[in-house]
Amino acid sequence: PADVGIKAIDFVFPKMYVDQAELERFDGVSAGKYTEGLGQKQMGFSSELEDINSLCLTAFSQLVERNGLRYEEIGRVDVGTETIVDKSKSVKTVLMELFAECGNHDVEGLDTTNACYGGTAALFNAVAWVESSAWDGRAAVVVAGDIAVYAKGNARPTGGCGAVAMLVGPGAPLVLERGLRATYMANVYDFYKPDLTSEYPVVDGPLSIKCYLKALDNCYEGYARRAGRPHFDLEQADAVVFHSPFCKLVQKSLARLALNDLVRARSAPSASAAPPDAHLPEALRNATLEGSYGDRQVEKELMALSRDAFERKTARSLLLASRVGNMYTASVYSCLLSHLLETPLAQLAGQRIVVFSYGSGLASSMYSLRVKGGAELETLVERCAHVRQNLDSRVAVSPQQFSDILEQRQKSLHAAPYASQRSTDELFAGTWYLAAIDEKHRRTYARK
Ligand code: ACO
Fold first, then answer.
1. Cβ distance 60 to 95 under 8 Å?
2. Looking at the DSSP assignment, which residues form a beta bridge with residue 169?
């Protein structure tokens, strides 16, 4: 099959959010630390009414309904998540509830887990199925979502919550470019969840940032090689979208790609007598990839050097990430969708969008999508118009209430039997929610 890729997208996040400037005051940190320093405006979160199963049920059912799909036409569902409520039973099996009425139980695919990377692994699996001898002509769907909550402390403002559902098949307006994919994986403990009774990770913030940037360097090197190095540089990407733990890191990452280009140009044979970086500040002329992680001076110069490229290629992708926060596996796809929503259609057509996906632990890949203009692209973008409307119709909750709700979430996570007394007023219409957990920890869901 030709032009295999993403044919439709739906995206969900909670109706409640907390304002990051208010959170700065509540946490007693200096004004601007979360908003300027991390680049975050708001953070979406949910009460115990929503768990990972309900979040994925909402994203999946909305994709199906908005695009007029029928459950009997779907032959594969891959889920990416790191939010675990059951060590054995997958989210995918819960999604099978939606297939029960039509009687389609012939649906391949299960969950993939590694921090924020699982959604990309799920996408690669779905695309591979469509391109394989096992494909029977039916559609594949990828669902990636997470509830990202941190213990009180400096990581808490980098939480978030959301899920994406994507229809995958041939003839797509967003085509995965074949052969243009690079991966970097390694064994590190930068972020992990050893306490199986808690949703909170153990995180080494500075190490996780270094690992992220090192993974980015390695993926970009591999991607550029496959795309025809030494000629490949940032200018051959019309847009670059990144996994966004917080928006400032994304801006630093785009700057990091500029450093990669400089280092690559330095080692390439040049016809001119002057070195290619002679006009640059000294910090950049001497900078190496390995020696510059966490180097504030190099970071500052690179951000200034790449500011224009950032505005043109990446800034538009941060609409959801800045207002909902880190959604782990859904984060990079929130950036992809934001770029599609924020860029005029005529400009989108023909673009090459480079995607960088990172999951701590660690797993990372860089690949690219080629945008095919036309009616399919228009329909894809039109059917996501509700995402922006939902973003603007959310309800602000005070930091104190946010903190109380998170405490209640943590307490009730594995309670059995349990049924929340909270009102469903806090949910968007059409949202699936956790109705009850029985004494044997079996969960049932209802829809608002
Ligand atoms: N005004 C403006 N900027 C400020 C202010 C202020 N008043 N105060 C601090 N800042 C800046 C800092 O200078 C820093 O920016 P810089 O690094 O560009 O210099 C930024 O705000 C953050 O301040 P730090 O003191 O570095 O923040 P802290 O160490 O408290 O926590 C961290 C930040 C490490 C990101 C933490 O939130 C965390 O651990 N988050 C989870 C881990 C994470 O997201 N890792 C990323 C990759 S892995 C993943 O996706 C989970």
1. yes
2. 5
**Cis amide linkage into residue 230, ω under 30° from 0:** yes
Q: Is the ipTM of this complex over 0.95?
A: yes
Q: Which amino acid is at 164?
A: V
Confidence of residue 279 (pLDDT cuts 50, 70, 90): confident
Angle CA 438–439–444, to nearest 5: 15
Q: Is the CB of 209 under 6 A from ligand 1?
A: yes
What's the CA gap between 398 and 369, in Å, rounded? Answer: 39
Model pLDDT for residues 203-247, shown as the tens digit of each residue:
999 999 999 999 999 999 999 999 986 678 999 999 999 999 999
Category of 350 on φ-ψ map: left (φ > 0), alpha (ψ -120 to 50) or beta: left
- Is 311 one of the catalytic residues? no
Helix residue ranges per DSSP H, 306-398: 307-313, 319-324, 331-342, 345-348, 375-382, 385-392
The pLDDT tens digits of the residues spanning 89-111 come to: 999 999 999 999 999 999 999 99
Annotated catalytic residue within 56, 243, 301, 384: 243
Question: For residue 35, what are the contacts with CB-CB under 8 A and spacing of at least 6?
Answer: 20, 21, 24, 41
| Paired tokens of 386 | 């509700």
Q: Which of 82, 199, 221, 299 is catalytic?
A: 82
Taking Cα atoms as reference points, which of 142, 23, 15 lies closest to residue 80? Answer: 142
Q: Using an 8 Å Cβ cutoff, are 102 and 77 in contact?
A: no
